[in-house]
Write a structure and sequence with these properties.
CATH topology of the largest domain in chain A: D-Maltodextrin-Binding Protein, domain 2
Structural class of chain A: alpha/beta
Number of domains of chain A: 2
CATH superfamily of one domain in chain C: MetI-like
CATH architecture of one domain in chain C: Orthogonal Bundle
CATH superfamily of the largest domain in chain A: Periplasmic binding protein-like II
CATH topology of one domain in chain C: MetI-like fold
CATH class of the largest domain in chain A: Alpha Beta
Structural class of chain C: mainly alpha
Distance between the termini of chain C: 31 Å
Number of helices of chain A: 10
Largest sheet of chain A: 9 strands, mixed
Radius of gyration of chain C: 24 Å
Chains: A alpha/beta (about 325), B alpha/beta (about 260), C mainly alpha (about 550)
CATH architecture of the largest domain in chain A: 3-Layer(aba) Sandwich
Radius of gyration of chain A: 23 Å
Oligomer: heterotrimer
Number of helices of chain C: 26
Strand order of the largest sheet of chain C: 1-2
């Protein structure tokens, strides 16, 4: 019996020692000095930001942690200024809601001459466009016509072969919605969307990246999502192609903001935000070609065919209005 | 001397024991006999201290022990299912209590008990390797090491078969005699009770039906219950055995069994 | 007197309840409050909004239906597997295989189940390719059912198998001799004693399905469920915690119903004094039927995971299928992996240790004390509630409560979150094992001069060690694979492997997702091997016990 006890205690001690090791391990890293960056950015954008920071002497002084948009959104709203991060990059309108609810960001102290007007507490790092993409093998296999616009996706030949995102759960769908509302007005958008939803059937996804996943996996032939992801897949040699819809390539920005932690704010955070904007944009533009700042040009080979900007500011209220259109369209699609 | 005075116990408004009065002298073996549900186990638990009484007194050597917690009364019990510890071998089970009170029994006393109960050859065995009779003897030894002031036995024989039963009976008697130990046994078997004990306490519906020496109970049953349920049972047994012997196919050793030890 | 005494167990009870008060009830109460608090003070409006929202009631109804169906199917399948192990004359090795394979899905993160189904049964899936045609439509009811069954089978099998090993099989013989028909025998001696566990299995499976978000997100299709609504409200494109909290609260309703139901079913639990091992009757037809059925069930389940072993080792499934180690090497080249792995191991070990202690303490109070029934019921209800709260809800509630406290972003918070989130099943395992032990041990040992605590250490714990190790292993494995709550409370320095997987999933890097899943699988297999080794060593040590020289005495 003594032996058993010993083993049991051994297990416990081992566990305890491991924690000890882990905790001291963290402590000795001088953790509190590092600037913690939370980001929802894609891999390419993270790489670009890291390159900019590392090249300008910040290597080893920050810790970059990525999250899904929804998880990071949840954390921002729930934690407010208690959040671990000193610096956040995130979809702009989430930053708006977080600021409105928690007043958690500082005004930026550096100049960033953007072409559009942005609030004083954030400035964009990327503008991400929406596009249609297809699985070329499936298109051939099913002998499907290539769509040229979003309205084409209502064509019954695509039934069960289209995947889009639900605007209730992911802002990627907003790119689709903006294009439809711009082109067809609110009522027209509802009708077209209902047609698309009818074709999409079980493939109305909650995650922004899910349509591309399904196109890749050969589950559907056509999807709508972030353009740069499809561009990357095509470059990678996958049977993926992308189509800029005639209704326009609308875009959403992701921005950088500095958390206001009062006295405990890390001054390096603001410097790093500036560094990312000043030194990271060039590389970022390779993946996200849209120009955002004065002096930038839209000359990348990856440039979309119909870049468009929605006529109204992209506020949470607008998003909610567009969500309602989508809900109506779903009811319509079921009839 | 153990005296029980006006002891009462009820559970959820149902009275289990009404006003029990009883005296047990030192070194006596007393059996508590009765049908299932008569309250005999409750009485045992009350004496042991496992259950709280509603009213009454339990005096041991003149001192009321009712308010004393179980482990301070100094009584001990062997449960019907023995409650041996399967993670320990026979020897460690027997000497379990010595870990807490090393001085309660000397080495010699423990060795004597092991020999008395015939456990020498089983000391290294695991509990699951033992037969029922062996388990009973291990449990007895383990309890005796603690030198209880009163030994309580809950249905000590019910799970054992014929010959083993008789040998365990003999061991119990021997222990009670050798150690001059007051022993209280709960049983539902009249034969067991009347052949093993100095006195028998017959309990029915939470009251004492009769309390006396086996001889008195056989000869002077005080009420219908004792006659009907206790004596009648024995009579049937007796007749059965007589029938067997008259047919002449009774093995001789059966007569010996009672005396075997 | 006995009642006045049990001070230690009362202490343990208070400790256990305190832990759950701070780390379960307070966060829940915070959410409850949140569901009523709007900009203009207290209001029931959020409930109105949620209830009248498009499809909420339908999604809720769908959830009830699919979760019930899945729970029934899972319990049935688990029953077949467990019956094969405990009541049939199958070869010992095959029985061992069944026991191991049935719990295998538990060793992989649930995050991979959805992909695994799509990559197996989808249009271009591995199995679809093998058969040349898609076997069934994977989106909607079918896909959910498949995913949920795989997800819940291990828990159901663990519970049923555990109870079956404690059923006295002699009763089957008695029933046959009494002239019962085979069916009556089966009902009377197998089903009836199992009724309590079957109900427990149903309940556990039901809530695992009811609260899971990952599987419907992948294969739910048009069959909307409550968890999806919860996700959209909590974390959708316009997060609204108040409405999300309403959904979470409404999702607690089934658990209230269940608490009542279980209370009612409690009396069907049968206890055996003694387990007799008897030879299982010959029954070639029965053995063949159950042997084959088990093989089919396990083949279906394991085949779903086959793809995980294929995809990461080919260039780009399903388009370029030449072998490559590029993805594997790529994952291991990432130097943040070391930290993440270390964190995962620390969290898993600590969760296992603290979880075993908590469940042991809780089970001691319910199984081996004379505390009043109402007090024990508190623990039972806690156990049920932990099982009925979606991980996402725990995660967000923790954010609301513990942000700004020193606990924020610590490994400790991850550990405690896991301990609470997974409490239910190990608690049931522990309780059932402790209940089955001889009830007189504590009394006997106390008469031998033990304090209660000493008895627990010297007698109860050594005899419960098998189950304790099982619980330890259960907690370890679950801590390794969980993500739903952890994703919110892990900080930049306390990330674990599954949160890493979530990141990779976000980048749609499935090859890497599968590589890390395999890494987790390997760790879990190794850990289980170690735990089993310890258990076996213990058995061996027991057999070897020798009588030591007599202890020194101060006579």
């Amino acid at each position: 019996m003594k032996k058993n006890l010993k083993k049991y205690t051994c297990l416990l001690t081992a566990a305890a020692m491991l924690t000890g090791a882990a905790l001291t391990g963290c402590g000795s890293g001088g953790g509190s000095e590092e600037v913690v960056i939370y980001t929802n950015a894609d891999d390419e954008a993270m790489e670009a930001m890291k390159h900019a920071l590392d090249a300008n002497g910040y290597e080893g002084q920050y810790l970059m942690q990525s999250f899904g948009t929804s998880e990071l959104g949840g954390k921002l709203l729930a934690e407010g200024t208690n959040i671990e991060a000193d610096l956040v990059t995130m979809s702009s309108f989430y930053l708006d809601s977080a600021q409105e609810q928690n007043s958690m960001f500082q005004d930026l102290t550096f100049d960033a001459p953007a072409m559009e007007e942005y609030p004083s507490f954030y400035t964009p790092i990327t503008a991400q466009e929406g596009a249609i993409f297809v699985n070329t093998e499936m298109m051939a296999e099913h002998q499907l016509p290539m769509p040229t616009c979003l309205k084409d996706l209502t064509n019954p030949v695509y039934e069960g072969l289209v995947s889009v995102t639900d605007i209730q759960s992911s802002s990627t769908a907003w790119l689709l919605m903006q294009a439809l509302v711009s082109a067809y007005g609110e009522d027209g958008a509802e009708e077209v969307l209902a047609g698309i939803y009818k074709n999409a059937g079980p493939h109305i996804e909650s995650s922004g990246s899910a349509p591309l996943k399904k196109v890749r996996a050969g589950e559907v032939a056509i999807g709508f999502g972030l353009r740069h992801q499809a561009v990357a897949d095509k470059a990678d040699g996958l049977p993926i192609d992308y189509i800029d819809p005639m209704e326009g390539n609308f875009s959403l920005t992701e921005s950088v903001a500095v958390v206001d932690k009062g006295d405990k704010s890390n001054p390096l955070a603001m410097e790093m935000a500036e560094c990312i904007i000043k030194n990271g944009r060039e590389e970022l533009q390779q993946t996200y070609p849209l120009a955002i700042y004065e002096g930038e040009t839209n000359d990348s080979e990856n440039l979309s065919a119909y870049p468009m900007i929605f006529s109204e500011p992209l506020t949470v209220e607008l998003l909610e209005a567009h969500q309602q259109i989508s809900e109506n369209a779903r009811v319509l699609a079921e009839e | 001397m153990l005296e029980i005075k006006n002891l009462k116990k009820s559970y959820d408004g149902v009275t289990i024991l009404h006003d029990i009065n009883l005296t047990i002298n030192d070194g006596e073996i007393v059996s508590i006999l009765g049908p299932s549900g008569c309250g005999k186990t409750t009485l045992l638990n009350l004496i042991l201290g496992l259950t709280d009484a509603d009213e009454g007194e339990i005096l041991f050597q003149g001192e009321n022990v009712l308010e004393l917690p179980m482990e301070q009364r100094g009584f001990n019990i062997v449960f019907q299912d023995y409650a041996l510890f399967p993670n320990l071998n026979v020897y460690k089970n027997i000497t379990y209590g010595l870990r807490n009170r090393p001085s309660i029994s000397t080495r010699q006393e423990v060795e004597d008990l092991i020999d008395l109960l015939g456990l020498r050859e089983h000391l290294d065995k695991k509990i699951e390797q033992l037969s029922g009779g062996q388990k009973q003897r291990v449990a007895l030894a383990r309890t005796m090491v603690m030198k209880p002031k009163i030994l309580l036995l809950d249905e000590p024989l019910s799970a054992l078969d014929g010959v083993i039963k008789e040998s365990i009976k003999a061991k119990i008697r021997q222990i009670a005699r050798d150690y001059r130990l007051t022993t209280i046994i709960v049983t539902h078997d009249p034969e067991e009770a009347l052949t093993l004990s100095d006195k028998v306490l017959i309990v029915q519906n939470g009251t004492i039906s009769q309390y006396g020496k086996p001889d008195d109970i056989i000869k002077k049953p005080e009420n219908e219950f004792v006659k009907e349920f206790i004596l009648n049972q024995l009579l049937i047994k007796k007749n059965n055995i007589f029938t067997l012997f008259r047919q002449g196919n009774a093995p001789e050793m059966a007569v010996q069994a009672g005396a075997a030890g | 007197m006995s009642r006045k005494k049990e001070l230690e167990i009362k202490g343990i009870f208070v400790l256990v309840v305190l832990v759950f008060l701070i780390f379960l009830l307070v966060p829940l109460a915070r959410l409850f409050l949140k569901s009523f608090v709007g900009d203009a003070g207290l209001t029931p409006d959020f409930y109105g909004e949620v209830l009248t929202g498009r499809g909420f009631l339908r999604a809720f109804g769908n959830s009830l239906v699919i979760s019930s169906v899945s729970a029934v199917v899972t319990t049935l399948l688990a029953f077949i597997l467990a019956y094969g192990v405990h009541y049939c004359n199958l070869p010992g090795r095959y029985k061992g295989f069944i026991s191991r394979a049935a719990v295998a899905p538990m060793l992989l993160p649930t995050i991979t189940y959805g992909f695994a189904i799509i990559y197996s049964f989808g249009k271009q899936g591995l199995i679809t390719r093998l058969f040349g045609t898609q076997l069934f439509d994977i989106y909607g009811f079918n896909g959910l059912l498949l995913g949920y069954v795989i997800y819940t089978l291990p828990v159901s099998f663990l519970l049923l198998s555990n109870t079956m090993s404690y059923i006295d099989k002699k009763f089957s013989v008695v029933s046959r001799i009494m002239g019962d028909s085979p069916f009556a025998t089966f009902v009377g001696t197998v089903l009836r004693p199992l009724l309590g566990t079957l109900a427990a299995s149903f309940v556990q499976c039901f809530f695992l399905c009811f609260t899971d978000y990952g599987i419907p997100a992948s294969v739910g299709g048009e069959y909307e469920v409550a968890a999806t609504v919860l996700y959209n409200e909590m974390l959708g494109s316009v997060p609204n915690f108040s409405r999300g909290a309403c959904v979470a609260m409404l999702m607690l309703i089934p658990s209230v119903v269940t608490i009542a139901l279980l209370h009612y079913l409690e009396k069907y639990n049968i206890r055996y004094n003694k387990i007799s091992q008897i030879e299982i009757r010959r029954g070639r037809i029965r053995d063949t039927v159950f042997g084959v059925l088990s093989a089919v069930i396990l083949a279906c389940i394991l085949s779903v995971f086959a793809v995980i072993f294929v995809v990461p080792f080919v260039d780009e499934w399903p388009y370029r299928i030449q072998f490559t180690l590029e993805h594997v090497l790529g994952v291991f080249a990432d130097n943040s992996l070391v930290t993440v792995c270390r964190n995962s191991l620390v969290v898993a070990l600590l969760t296992a240790a603290l979880g075993s202690l908590t469940t042991y303490g809780a089970a001691l109070t319910t199984a081996r004390s004379h505390l009043p029934g109402g007090v024990k019921q508190v623990i039972e209800n806690i156990s049920l509630i932990t099982n009925t709260i979606p991980g996402m809800v725990i995660g967000i509630a923790y954010l609301l409560i513990f942000s700004g406290t020193p606990l924020q972003n610590t490994l400790f918070l991850l550990v405690i979150c896991n301990v609470i989130h997974f409490f239910s099943t190990p608690y049931l395992m522990m309780k059932s094992s402790l209940t089955k032990m001889n009830a007189s041990w504590e009394t006997t040992a106390m008469l031998m001069g033990d304090t209660w605590l000493k008895t627990i250490v010297r007698v109860v714990t050594p005899n419960a060690m098998g189950t304790i190790l099982e619980v330890f292993s259960y907690y370890f494995v679950n801590a390794m694979v969980t993500v739903s709550a952890v994703i919110f409370i892990a900080g930049a320095r306390t990330m674990v492997i599954t949160t890493k997987i979530k990141e990779l999933q976000y980048y749609t890097k499935f090859n890497e997702v599968f590589v890390l899943s395999l890494l987790i699988l390997a760790v879990n297999l190794a850990a289980r091997g170690v735990f089993r080794g310890i258990a076996a060593g213990r058995q061996g040590a027991k057999r070897m016990v020798r009588r030591p020289a007599f202890r020194k005495q101060k006579a």
